[in-house]
Amino acid sequence: MDGFPIGLVLFALLVVFVIAGLGKTIRIVPQARAGIVERFGKYKATLPAGLNVVVPFVDKVRYMIDLREQVVSFPPQPVITEDNLVVSIDTVIYFQVTDPIAATYEIANYIQAVEQLTMTTLRNIVGGMDLEQTLTSREEINSGLRGVLDEATGKWGIRVNRVEIKGIDPPPSIKDAMEKQMRADRDKRALILTAEGQRQSAILTAEGNKQSAILNAEGDRESQILRAQADRESQILRAQGEGQAIQTVFQAIHDGRPDQSLLAYQYLQMMPQIAKGDANKVWIVPSEIGKALEGLGSTMNSLKGIPDDVDGPAKRVDMGPASLDVAEIESEQKEALARAHDEVAAAIAAAEASTTTPTGTPVTRNAPGDTPPAGDPGEPPAQ
């Protein structure tokens, strides 16, 4: 009974020892990781990803190295340019561990080493550039940093894949000066564009006014020509119409064979018309109006060509039918217009064919269809 508990305890201790030994023997390494195994403080092996077996209590996994690409952002660092201006530059490094053994035993802290190397290299590169070149040469700075870092970190088992500059911040005074310069440049370009636009507008406006003046002048010239031609034709037609009216009235008077009583009647009809004048304020009718009319008749009797009495019945002037058909009126109007056009053309031809005598008196050739005058215009018509 006394030995049973002791054996149970020993068995339990043996089971615990075996479990602990198995725990120290089996090592599971995650994907994209590498385990550095040391035996009694000395490098023994590198464990790949997966299930690995080591000697318990003899081998020890000292470091677990991440083989993935890593990104490290460094805080802004003051850098002096060639023109003695201090700018703050912050960078981002993309690197990857390619040799876990070198990254473990060649350097104590490779991230800190990369940061310090980036700072010194950045100062060397930017120190040979002025501010404007620094602000516009990011790609050149990135290439220079990458080349130096890749060459220096190769022996540490690290490969620098990419270097990026996050920002370059000049001093506040330089920022204000740059903003003023950019604002002045923008104002200058705006003024230049405005002036060019005004010039183009003035040129187009002047060209438009020129074309408008030319067209207005041409229109005025053509309208004056057409108006003159219309006035000439209208005067010719009016003169011909007045001539025809005079001939018609004169012929009607001779055909009617007027006497002294008709002239006295016409005189009486004209007296009210004379009294209608604006300047005639007072009109005196003589008491001897009859004697005045007799005297007027006796005076008119002495005129040639107007007899006291006429023989036979008076000849009436044919005034045409009382009403005409609309079609007949239109046809007559068309015929009258055609005759007027022909007469205007004949008058124009006669005016163009007119010549001047050596003494300076104009002589006009008779147009076709015109009746030559009977005698001297200054002499009275023959009886």
UniProtKB/TrEMBL annotation:
<comment type="similarity">
    <text>Belongs to the band 7/mec-2 family.</text>
</comment>
<feature type="compositionally biased region" description="Pro residues">
    <location>
        <begin position="370"/>
        <end position="383"/>
    </location>
</feature>
<protein>
    <submittedName>
        <fullName>SPFH/Band 7/PHB domain protein</fullName>
    </submittedName>
</protein>
<dbReference type="InterPro" id="IPR001972">
    <property type="entry name" value="Stomatin_HflK_fam"/>
</dbReference>
<dbReference type="InterPro" id="IPR036013">
    <property type="entry name" value="Band_7/SPFH_dom_sf"/>
</dbReference>
<feature type="compositionally biased region" description="Low complexity">
    <location>
        <begin position="348"/>
        <end position="369"/>
    </location>
</feature>
<dbReference type="Pfam" id="PF01145">
    <property type="entry name" value="Band_7"/>
</dbReference>
<dbReference type="GO" id="GO:0098552">
    <property type="term" value="C:side of membrane"/>
</dbReference>
<dbReference type="GO" id="GO:0005886">
    <property type="term" value="C:plasma membrane"/>
</dbReference>
<keyword id="KW-0812">Transmembrane</keyword>
<dbReference type="InterPro" id="IPR018080">
    <property type="entry name" value="Band_7/stomatin-like_CS"/>
</dbReference>
<dbReference type="InterPro" id="IPR050710">
    <property type="entry name" value="Band7/mec-2_domain"/>
</dbReference>
<dbReference type="InterPro" id="IPR001107">
    <property type="entry name" value="Band_7"/>
</dbReference>
<keyword id="KW-1133">Transmembrane helix</keyword>
<feature type="domain" description="Band 7">
    <location>
        <begin position="24"/>
        <end position="182"/>
    </location>
</feature>
<keyword id="KW-0472">Membrane</keyword>
<feature type="region of interest" description="Disordered">
    <location>
        <begin position="348"/>
        <end position="383"/>
    </location>
</feature>
<feature type="transmembrane region" description="Helical">
    <location>
        <begin position="6"/>
        <end position="23"/>
    </location>
</feature>
